[in-house]
């Protein structure tokens, strides 16, 4: 089972390295009985900031305390480039026999997600398709020698007013084939539409390839998915749970059944913990 470790925010560094040594965090993942980490990154880290050091990245935000924390807990990382630091995190996880799913979470480094953040779909303000292809290519090339990276995820939570099925097929097919060409040993994880909750369009049209059985689809399910949050308290629980299960089956679960089943990776699920 995987745990998510975000590295796609403005600092472009896996979170928590200013608080704990990298080795300690990797050991904690094992202690918590996870054997996999979904490690996120932003496209711009590879395409625009590849030569920026960790220290320079945080200096850009005047985060002196964060820099001091990294210097104390992970001094070897401070002068690495952001891409090197991402690789160092992968190496530490590998040393603890933890598998890694490298996940392109967003293009512009920032919190993810909402419909109008400019990162939702191909052609949005910060989501240039050609830069995206360049970014995932650079990520795949930098990680292809690291055997513990078992999967490359093309994009987290496609969404927003510009999403459409035709462009999904066009660009996700290009991206999947590109990653497979660079690293044929890695699984290629392909997400759906509407915040990765909808792959139902694949009922009527397949991608037309399986990348030598390396193709995996991805789905998310939260208690608040599709505005379900209020219904947990207002509807009969057994019938509502059945409705949620059926909805997931209709939008994504069907992929693992039938004559040509394809693996489905539920990479995010849970409840609203904002209180």
From TrEMBL:
The keyword Ribosomal protein does not apply. It comes from the Eukaryota. InterPro entries: GH, Glyco_hydro_5. Keywords: Glycosidase, Hydrolase. GO terms for biological process: polysaccharide catabolic process. It holds the Pfam family Cellulase. PANTHER family: CELLULASE FAMILY PROTEIN (AFU_ORTHOLOGUE AFUA_5G14560). Belongs to the glycosyl hydrolase 5 (cellulase A) family. This is Glycoside hydrolase family 5 domain-containing protein. It comes from Cucumis melo.
